[in-house]
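Structure in, sequence out. Go:
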């Protein structure tokens, strides 16, 4: 009798648990985030695979964009609620009248973006008059302009070939002597021709902070559902903690998400710096260094304006919402 009672009690507990799980599942808010394959987003890949977002009440889906320039339009249409990409994309969109707000800095590229060239090219100056492939409307155009300016050249001094980040390799095999993109595309290009044809001419470690990745949302969504945004951030932080606690397991997850090997993930991680919580708020403060969106944003805006992509740099404070990171600081 006792066994039957315990079994009956157990069944009731299980039924109640299933009922609660069903309710919790229905209560989850679905968030679609635009993204690209990038080593700096490793915590997001881990958080999705391990179910970390769900414990905070949101279901996150990552939608890959082969052409990142399409991300702002997708946010505006409601196809996605937010995205992670480089800060220049936000500067461009806000300058053109779209209300996007950065809610968290994610990482900055410290070598995982690069200008790659044929081995016969030994300096950036030698690119004058030659074909260079890179995306005109996304982050690596900034790296190209920066490199050219350091070499005393202007963008008009080269034959620029507009490309998506993933198609830079094809453009180089079709005749461009150099190209700019990010990992894992860099590794793939360096393997072409048996690994003896191309080399890194300059990488983003020469311009720390120029290429900073951020999490951003449409301003209207931030006003409508701030709790879900905070849940996304907390799930991301859980993913970052898992990366640190169990690196080998995490690298396998990231490798599967990016279509590379775990060893390649480990190598690529050296070229990116994921920003810890204690450093996040500093990116929203006015400082004269590369770890301030004010400083970085002004430089990005100047380059974009010179290139004719925007008329002028928007007010930097109009490009972010600090309350989410500020709340993290209160609970740490």
């Amino acid at each position: 009798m006792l066994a039957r009672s315990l079994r009956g009690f157990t069944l009731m507990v299980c039924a109640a648990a299933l009922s609660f799980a069903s309710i919790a599942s229905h209560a989850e808010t679905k968030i679609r985030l635009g993204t690209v394959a990038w080593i700096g987003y490793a915590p997001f890949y881990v958080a999705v695979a391990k179910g970390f977002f769900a414990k905070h009440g949101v279901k996150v889906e990552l939608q890959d964009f082969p052409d990142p320039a399409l991300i702002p339009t997708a946010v505006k249409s409601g196809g996605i609620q937010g995205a992670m990409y480089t800060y220049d994309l936000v500067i461009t969109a806000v300058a053109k009248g779209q209300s996007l707000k950065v809610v968290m800095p994610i990482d900055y590229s410290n070598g995982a973006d690069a200008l790659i060239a044929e081995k016969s090219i030994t300096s950036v100056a030698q690119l004058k008059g030659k074909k260079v492939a890179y995306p005109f409307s996304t982050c690596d155009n900034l790296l190209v302009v920066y490199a050219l300016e350091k070499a005393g050249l202007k963008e008009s001094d080269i034959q620029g070939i507009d490309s998506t980040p993933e198609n830079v390799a094809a453009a180089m095999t079709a005749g461009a002597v150099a190209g700019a993109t990010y990992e894992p595309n860099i590794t793939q290009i360096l393997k072409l021709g048996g690994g003896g044809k191309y080399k890194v001419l300059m990488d983003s470690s020469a311009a720390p902070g120029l290429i900073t990745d951020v999490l951003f949302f449409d301003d209207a969504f931030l006003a409508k559902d701030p709790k879900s945004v905070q849940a996304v951030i907390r799930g991301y932080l859980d993913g970052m903690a898992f990366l640190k606690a169990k690196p080998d397991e995490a690298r396998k997850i990231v490798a599967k998400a990016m279509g590379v090997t775990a060893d390649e993930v480990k190598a690529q991680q050296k070229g990116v710096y994921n920003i810890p919580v204690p450093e996040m708020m500093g990116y929203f403060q006015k400082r004269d260094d590369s770890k301030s969106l004010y400083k970085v944003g002004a430089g990005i805006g100047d380059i974009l304006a010179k290139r004719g992509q925007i008329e002028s740099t928007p007010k930097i404070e109009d490009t972010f919402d600090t309350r989410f990171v500020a709340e993290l600081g209160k609970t740490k």
